[in-house]
Write a structure and sequence with these properties.
It contains 9 helices and 7 strands, in the order H-H-H-E-H-E-H-E-H-E-H-E-H-E-E-H. 36% of the residues lie in helices and 22% in strands. It has a domain of 170 residues: 3-Layer(aba) Sandwich (Rossmann fold), CATH 3.40.50. The protein is α/β, with parallel strands linked by helices and 243 residues long. The radius of gyration is 17 Å and the shape is globular. Strands 3-2-1-4-5-7-6 form a 7-stranded mixed beta sheet, with helices on both faces.
C-alpha cells in the first residue's frame, strides 16, 4: 500500500483523485519502470515530478471530462506508446476503457506487456508490435476507436494521418503537443481536409510544479477517412500532409 499520497499536487490540478487501488497501481507502475529501465532504457521520466507530473498528469489532463465517467465503456488506442504513456495511465484512470497500445519497437512492447501483466490489466489492455501504418489498415482497428491518442510521436500532420483512420464516426483524436500557435492552427486545418476531419478544439494546460505549458489538439472526423490513408510505411513522416 502507498502510505502517502504521491502526486497530490497533480490530483488537485486535475480536480480528480484516484482511488486507493488506482494510486497503488500508479505507484507500482513507477516501480516497474525503474526495473525495466535497467534492461531496456524506456524513459528518463521515472522519479519525483518527472514521473507524477511529466508522465501521469501529462497523460491525464486532456481527459478531465472522461474522468467524470471512468467506468463508461470506451475503446481507445495509444499510438507510439513507447514506455506505455499515455496508455497505461489512461487504463488505470478509466477502468471502463479497453486500451490498445501500439509501438513498432519490440523491446519496448515486450516491457509494456510485462508491465500490463504485473499491473493486472491483461483483460483491459492489449499491445501490438507493428508500424501504425499497418494498424490503420487492419479491419480490426480501422474506424473502431472512440479515442485515438499519441504523445511525443511526430509532427502534428503526421500524427493526424496516423490517428484519424482509426476513429469511429463520433470518435476523437487526441494529439498531444508542447508549443502551438495560431499560425499552426491555420496550417493544420488545411492538413485535415484530405483526411476528412476537422479541428474541434485546442486545449491549453500549464503543468504543475512549473513544468511548462502543454497543448492538446482534439480532432474529429467529418466523414469516413479515404482508404489511401495512412499512406505506406514511413511516408507520413517523410512527407507530411501539407508539405
Amino acid at each position: 500500500m502507498v502510505g502517502t499520497n504521491p502526486g497530490a499536487e497533480c490530483w488537485e490540478a486535475l480536480k480528480w483523485r484516484p482511488s486507493a487501488d488506482q494510486l497503488n497501481r500508479l505507484a507500482k507502475l513507477q516501480t516497474l519502470l525503474r526495473g525495466w529501465n535497467d534492461k531496456v532504457n524506456l524513459t528518463r521520466l521515472v522519479e519525483g515530478n518527472d514521473y507524477w507530473v511529466n508522465q501521469i498528469f501529462d497523460s491525464l489532463w486532456p481527459l478531465t471530462s472522461e474522468l467524470e465517467t471512468p467506468k463508461r465503456p470506451r475503446v481507445c488506442i495509444d499510438v507510439g506508446t513507447g514506455s506505455g504513456f499515455p496508455g497505461l495511465a489512461v487504463a488505470i484512470a478509466l477502468p471502463g476503457a479497453r486500451m490498445t497500445l501500439v509501438d513498432s519497437v519490440g523491446r519496448k512492447t515486450a516491457a509494456v506487456k510485462a508491465m500490463v501483466s504485473s499491473l493486472g490489466l491483461t483483460d483491459q489492455v492489449s499491445v501490438r508490435t507493428e508500424r501504425i501504418e499497418i494498424t490503420g489498415h487492419d479491419h480490426l482497428c480501422r474506424g473502431m476507436f472512440d479515442l485515438a491518442m499519441a504523445r511525443a510521436v511526430a509532427a502534428a500532420p503526421t500524427v493526424a494521418e496516423y490517428l484519424v483512420p482509426l476513429l469511429q464516426p463520433q470518435g476523437e483524436a487526441l494529439i498531444f503537443r508542447g508549443q502551438w500557435s495560431k499560425d499552426d492552427t491555420s496550417k493544420f486545418a488545411k492538413v485535415l481536409k484530405p483526411l476528412r476531419a476537422n479541428l474541434k478544439a485546442v486545449q491549453v494546460c500549464r503543468l504543475p510544479a512549473g513544468r511548462g505549458i502543454r497543448h492538446l489538439l482534439r480532432v474529429q472526423p467529418t466523414s469516413p477517412c479515404p482508404s489511401i490513408y495512412p499512406r505506406s510505411v514511413g511516408t507520413p513522416n517523410r512527407t507530411p500532409l501539407g508539405t
